[in-house]
Automatic annotation (TrEMBL):
It is an enzyme of class 6 (ligase). PROSITE patterns: AMP_BINDING (PS00455). Belongs to the ATP-dependent AMP-binding enzyme family. Residues 526-604 form the AMP-binding enzyme C-terminal domain. The keyword ATP-binding applies. Residues 24-76 form the Acetyl-coenzyme A synthetase N-terminal domain. It comes from Cutibacterium equinum. InterPro entries: Ac_CoA_lig, ACAS_N, AMP-bd_C, AMP-bd_C_sf, AMP-binding_CS, AMP-dep_synth/lig_dom, ANL_N_sf. GO terms for molecular function: acetate-CoA ligase activity. Signal peptide: none annotated. This is Acetate--CoA ligase. Its EC number is 6.2.1.1. Residues 85-465 form the AMP-dependent synthetase/ligase domain. Coiled coil: none annotated.
Amino acid sequence: MTDETIVDPPQPVVDVANVGDWNTLLESAVADPEGFWEAEAQELEWSKPWDKVLDRSDAPFFKWFTGARTNIVTNAVDRHLNTARRNKLALIWVGEDTSKVRTFSYFSLAREVEQMANILLSMGVRKGDVVTIYLPRIPELFFAMLACAKIGAVHSVVFAGYSSEALNQRIDGSESKVVITVDGSWINGKVFPMKQIVDDAVKFSPTVENVIVVRNTESEVTMDPTRDHWYHELCKLPIAKGRCETVQVDAEDPLFILYTSGSTGKPKGVVHTHGGYQVHLSATMKYCMDIHEEDRWWCTADPGWITGTSYVIYAPLLRGATTFMAEGSPVFPYPDVWWQLIEHYGINSMFTAPTAIRTLMRFGDAWVRKHDLSSLRILFSAGEPLNPEAWQWFHDVVGNGKCAVIDTWFQTETGAMQLTSLPTMPKKPGSAGKPIPGQEVAVVDEDGKEVPPGTDGFLVLKNPWPSMLRTLYKEPERYVDTYWSKYPGVYLTGDSARIDEDGYVWIIGRTDDVIKVSGHRIGTAEVETAVGSHPAVAECAAIGLPHEVKGNAIHMVVVLHTGYEPSKDLIADIRAHVAETLSPIAKPDTIDFVEKLPKTRSGKIMRRVLKARALGEDEGDLSTLDD
Ligand code: WT7
């Protein structure tokens, strides 16, 4: 396949698609974005209508649906209870041990959420308070997130793979009074001691008053009687019982904070709101994900990342769909566990990440072919470029040539997708598609001038969108600086890209100090802080190098303190140290020891020089190099 390869969508997909003529939709939405979003908002419930769809008066602090009152839980849960969806499955959950299955109708989901909400209220959690949720992929993650939203509290989900220091940083940053966690989580048949990590993390967190512990692995944990509570014990108490009202909040009130990596070691608390976010999710779930009433929808992402928060939890529930969640990894106990789940549960649409596709592809076609995957209609991917080889395999082998394969682009900051190929649109494998209805994008040069088609440059979004981040938690200046100051009036994505003659966008990669490893977003500064805190390390620099499966792998260049010698053991020790202090996902793949790092005269490490050298490429302009 080449850049010019165009694949028409399969006719059965076109026949049922919620979006008819994609061209007409895109043209009309872009002619009147606010009209488009307003019509989508009308499909949802609001206890008070908006005065204005979009308020630009305090740009770049845009406001959507101003004056309106709503709650995402009213739309994701409550409103379905007055319809036949009351008895429809909202969630099908399967454990890593796939014989463990839990299902919840919309009605029982509503009851579970009420119970958790009652408990949070009894702990004094009120509107605007932040609750940190550190849970693996289990149903209680749904209950916890929705319970916070229901009472107007703000959830901050921390990915279950983060270690205590990273968790501590996020708890402190958000001043959470309550943390919701588990005894442990299952990872490839072994217990990952999450409660222990919380214990270490909250030791230094002055704000935490209560820790709710869900029993999951039944492993031994230490409980502090003044602070820790078993969830199943709390549920038995009278305070947990009874109805709990869904509080109506302002459309612009915060729904959640999701920490993500940026250019410094300090993670950014991306803030999303109730009103606009629900509209954008609902619309993309309808037009882009093409969800149907009878569908079983599986997004494999973890809600510790935006894909999971948006497309495992909120978007499917907003559309009253059945969402599927699997606790385990794609290769445990065998590399066909996903295919087996699709077959057994009759999944219609699957949304996953390129790294998972490439991992499974390496195990060969036979694992896939032994399963009947004919329920599948559309296959989605997000998080990093879906290379044409992986696209082809996903299409030919998993989709058996009958499914649409759709790449989608978005960010923690954008909340919901911005680029995709609508189901009825011709696809260009390797490209992220076109802007969603109502959005316009451009690729600009260093001076902010739009470049001709086919030229690489910086990707910017031209229109505000309802699910946009509103600010960075407690760092409004950083919000303006990072996204809105380099090219005034447009949103800077941090990605490089090109747009071809037909308007398809091809993402090249990050232009800032962020590395996408297996789709996980990791800041060079974060890894450097972790490696730098190892006693042997004097100085270090992290770069991303291309990796066949992970997309990028972290390569570390290290200067040792005198008295330490490079060795295999030291490498292993540094990697273990990163796993412990930051996260196992951030472990450097390779470590090189050097005497000195290339720096500018002002002392800034020149990572591009390290990268060029590691790749055997031209080192470019070295005039600013100190030595
Ligand atoms: C960064 C955002 C999909 C949202 C989850 C990730 C990269 C995302 C694609 C894609 C190429 C992609 C970008 C972006 N990215 N989707 N389809 N093709 N690159 O959210 O963790 O905030 O990361 O992921 O570099 O800026 P995130």
